[in-house]
Amino acid sequence: MTDAADLAPIREAVRALCADFPGEYWRRLDRERAYPTEFVAALTKAGFLAALIPEQYGGSRLTMTAAAAIMEEIQASGCNGAPCHAQMYTMGTLLRHGSAAQKERYLPGIALGELRLQAFGVTEPTSGTDTLSLRTIAVRDGDHYVVNGQKIWTSRAEHSDLMLLLARTTPREQAKSRTAGLSVFLVDMRQVKNNGLTIRPIRTMMNHATAEVFFENMRAPVENLIGNEGEGFRYILSGMNAERILIAAECIGDAKWFIDKAASYARDRVVFGRPIGQNQGVQFPIARAYIGMRAAELMVREAAALYEAGKDCGAEANMAKHLAAEASWAAADMCVQTHGGFGFAEEFDIERKFRETRLYTVAPISTNLILSYIAEHVLGLPRSY
Ligand SMILES: Cc1cc2nc3c(=O)[nH]c(=O)nc-3n(C[C@H](O)[C@H](O)[C@H](O)COP(=O)(O)OP(=O)(O)OC[C@H]3O[C@@H](n4cnc5c(N)ncnc54)[C@H](O)[C@@H]3O)c2cc1C
After folding, report:
1. Which of 83, 186, 233, 263 is 20 to 30 A away from residue 96, measured at CA?
2. Which residues contact 383 (CB under 8 A, 6 or more apart)?
3. Cα 272 to Cα 295: distance, rounded to the nearest angstrom
4. What is the CA(285)–ligand 1 centre distance, in A?
5. Which phi-psi region, left, alpha or beta, contains residue 209 (left: φ > 0; alpha: ψ -120 to 50)?
6. CA dihedral of residues 140, 143, 144, 145 (deg, nearest 10)
7. What is the Cα–Cα distance from 86 to 360, expressed in whole angstroms?
8. Cβ of 207 less than 6 Å from ligand 1
9. How many whole angstroms from its chain centre is CA 347?
10. Rounded-to-integer distance, Cα 65 and Cα 301, Å
């Protein structure tokens, strides 16, 4: 299912669901920094978050293009997929690298939404973007690993049953290569919360349910190691393209929302006896934002098509994420400017979406790191870090 006509029913279904969660719903949660439980439950019940899980495990095994359309429509409707988008793609590491027993055990529950796997513990306070310098260690002790360390920005940790955790299992100086010695664990947080695992929420400029996570002699059963010990970095990297494409699609949805709002306001708002949109100084920034969004959208489609054809899409997924995050941020800024003072008023939802979309030039990967990737891997320039 890749063409626009085939996707129309999915897009309409997502739009219809989102119509039950209007601006006032999100504004209230934003004020309270509360989790959109009802919204996430509705998306889960409709099966949208299980889009990429194979049918044999209870998912709907849609294409990446269809999954991207779901995320885009959520954002274009004025809703926010960030509280649950990771439920759609975090399971990819388990699906690709987990054992048959692990998949049988977890994927059906994840597909139903009875098990939430939407916490991803990679970033640490001291290593930041330099993932290979992470310090959280997991030491084998019989049929368990004992984990000590800390993660930061582990989003949705409080609203997830399972966490995909990247930890060092071989000290860096003893590892066979620069990228070896890290391992991935599927941590069942229900078993270890407040018993080796502590979650401390971080309040951010937008309502994002992110947290610091502390591991103090946390015990993780050996059976929850994904794939081979020491090869975890490769497994985590293999999930990055899906994450980049889906978040890029969310940015496209955000950009569409901002552009629609701005164009509609510019048509209706009359100052100096004519619609503000009659002034080129107002219409050109809207047109420019639209052009930027459409160009980014093409790259998202290209990346998704390569992904679902099983081809290497690292460059395209990164470029899609970069272009789409820049396009959504440019559209957000334009939308505030077009609305003048009302761009700052809570009830217009623009300032909320403005804060929400700002994240995506920083996370899940920052602009500079994408530029470094393209410089090194596409243009053959020397590695800069
Ligand atoms: C709200 C939020 C949610 C997040 N959710 C998650 C999550 O669920 N799981 C998770 O693991 N992580 C998560 N992250 C972490 C996110 O992926 C990182 O914040 C991001 O990758 C940037 O890393 P950093 O904050 O450590 O910045 P740093 O690595 O400290 O970098 C700071 C700045 O310096 C730049 N920089 C660093 N090194 C270089 C270089 N060599 N060349 C050029 N520029 C450089 C970066 O681009 C960045 O702009 C989240 C972050 C936020 C803010």
Report:
1. 83
2. 372, 376
3. 34
4. 30
5. left
6. 20
7. 14
8. no
9. 26
10. 7
CA distances (Å), origin 171, targets 128, 156, 167? 18, 29, 11
Q: For residue 311, give every residue at least 6 positions away whose Cβ sits within 8 Å of its Cβ, in sequence order, or none.
A: none
Kindly report whether the global pTM for this prediction surpasses the value 0.85: yes
CA dihedral (225, 163, 236, 368) positive or negative: negative
Give yes or no for residue 365 CB within 6 A of ligand 1.
Answer: yes
pLDDT band at 4 (very low <50, low <70, confident <90, very high): low
The kind and range of the H/E element at 333 are helix 314-339
**Quick one: tokens of 135?**
């310090």
Q: Which residue has 């270890």 as its token pair?
A: 192
Q: Which residues contact 64 (CB under 8 A, 6 or more apart)?
A: 52, 242, 245, 246, 304, 307, 308
Kindly indicate the confidence band of residue 1, based on its pLDDT and cuts at 50, 70 and 90: very low
Cβ contact 196:216 at 8 Å: yes
Q: How many CB atoms lie within 10 A of CB 369?
A: 14
What's the CA angle centered on 60, arms 50 and 186, to 5 degrees?
A: 40
Q: Which of 80, 124, 153 to mutate to test the pocket of ligand 1 (most atoms within 8 A of CB)?
A: 153
Which of 131, 366, 367, 383 is the pocket-test mutation for ligand 1 (most atoms within 8 Å of CB)? 366
Residue type, 257: W
> What does the chain come to in residues?
385
Contact 145, 219 (CB under 8 A): yes
